[in-house]
UniProtKB/TrEMBL annotation:
Residues 1-26 are annotated as: Disordered. Residues 308-366 form a coiled coil. Belongs to the IFT57 family. This is Intraflagellar transport protein 57 homolog. The gene is IFT57. It comes from Capra hircus. It holds the Pfam family IFT57.
């Protein structure tokens, strides 16, 4: 699909700048005209008409409970999230209409994956998409309208739709209406006939002498036929019937044209007279209203002055009371600040006092409690028992040691009194 924009230069020339998309890919826009910014509105209106031809209201909107988009829905930003969802839904439906299987996108699907799938399907139709996919994520704009329009064209091609010439119905008019139309005479026809007669008179040059001779002969003929004319043989009833029969054909109806300046002037005069008549009626009422309002304002002003004079001392007292009240509020604010500070100090002192009381209670309870003394006595008793057991063990050990020493001494004495010392024993020493 190719979109063309005409640019009018100051010299009066028209330069046509075209941008080709779809089948005519490969052309690059050299210059965008001032109307290029509004081209997407035209594309959007064409898209709505193509969607109506595809019966999208019955097949898509009613099944999915969607609202029908306006003719500039994808050209202006309203709600990007809703517009993107509508764009994906329409694109999927158009791809399916064009004979390609495409799953209907859901609300929580990945937008980038949906856009890439739509662009791949668009390229499979032979259309170009020389723009970044992020342009479609907003759900509106020139590229969104372009993609939907291309998909709608492919869907129309798939169903075999072709544009045909419009067939205008032939209206058959009645004989009476035809006769009345022939009898009517428009203002434009009157002006044209009048201009044609003037031009014919200017073109035909007639000699004055010839004209005088013709006039004289006509006068003579009329004077000769004057007697025949005075004696009429026509029946009055037949004459009246003939007049009634011919009367509708003799009507001259001048059709009013709203574009005629004469009608505009008449309307201006009528409006002027209506305004003047309405002004005469309303001016007196407005004057009376103005006078009443002025008198009321004067009364109110005088009343205010009187009340101010009468209540001057009360106003002064009120002002003095206001000043005292402001001073009292200031003092209250200052005192309130001091109270807040002292309250904070009091809370700190109270916390310290609670800590000291808790320590004193712990020390007092430890001093009056006899449990430590009982524990000390039990420990002493246990120590005495362990001391006795240790003494017994020491005595046993000393006794065992004394026995071993005595035994060793006895052995040494026996050895010393031995007479023969074995050689093996000497060798060992």
């Amino acid at each position: 699909m190719a979109a063309a924009a005409a640019v009018v230069t100051p010299s009066g020339l028209e330069d046509e700048v075209s941008r080709s998309r779809g089948e005519g890919a490969g052309e690059v826009v050299v210059e965008r005209g001032p109307g290029a910014a509004y081209h997407m509105f035209v594309v959007m209106e064409d898209l709505v008409e193509k969607l109506k031809l595809l019966r999208y209201e019955e097949d898509l909107l009613r099944k999915n409970n969607l609202k029908p988009p306006s003719r500039h829905y994808f050209a202006l930003p309203t709600n990007p999230g809703e517009q993107f969802y509508m764009f994906c839904t329409l694109a999927a439906w158009l791809i399916n209409k064009a004979g390609r299987p495409f799953e209907q996108p859901q609300e929580y699907d990945d937008p980038n994956a949906i856009i890439s799938s739509i662009l791949s399907e668009l390229r499979s139709f032979g259309r170009t998409a020389d723009f970044p996919p992020s342009k479609l994520k907003s759900g509106y704009g020139e590229h969104v309208c372009y993609v939907l329009d291309c998909l709608a064209e492919e869907a129309l091609k798939y169903i075999g739709f072709t544009w045909k010439r419009p067939a205008y119905p032939v209206e058959e008019l009645d004989e009476e209406t035809v006769a009345e139309d022939d009898a009517e005479l428009t203002l434009n026809k009157v002006d044209e006939e009048f201009v044609e007669e003037e031009t014919d008179n200017e073109e035909n040059f007639i000699d004055l002498n010839v004209l005088k001779a013709q006039t004289y002969r006509l006068d003579m003929n009329e004077s000769a036929k004057q007697e025949d004319i005075l004696e009429s043989t026509t029946d009055a009833a037949e004459w009246s019937l003939e007049v009634e029969r011919v009367l509708p054909q003799l009507k001259v109806t001048i059709r009013t044209d709203n574009k005629d300046w004469r009608i505009h002037v008449d309307q201006m005069h009528q409006h002027k007279s209506g305004i003047e008549s309405a002004l005469k009626e309303t001016k007196g009422f407005l004057d009376r209203l103005h006078n009443e309002i002025s008198r009321t304002l004067e009364k109110i002003g005088s009343r205010e002055k009187y009340i101010n004079n009468q209540l001057e001392h009360l106003v002064q007292e009120y002002r003095a009371a206001q000043a005292q009240l402001s001073e009292a509020r200031e003092r209250y604010q200052q005192g309130n600040g001091g109270v807040t500070e002292r309250t904070r100090i009091l809370s700190e002192v109270t916390e310290e006092l609670e800590k000291v009381k808790q320590e004193m209670e712990e020390k007092g309870s430890s001093m009056t409690d006899g449990a430590p003394l009982v524990k000390i006595k039990q420990s002493l008793t246990k120590l005495k028992q362990e001391t006795i057991q240790m003494d017994i063990r020491i005595g046993v050990v000393e006794h065992t040691l004394l026995q071993s020493k005595l035994k060793e001494k006895s052995n040494m004495t026996r050895d010393m009194h031995a007479t023969v010392i074995p050689e093996s024993a000497i060798g060992s020493y």
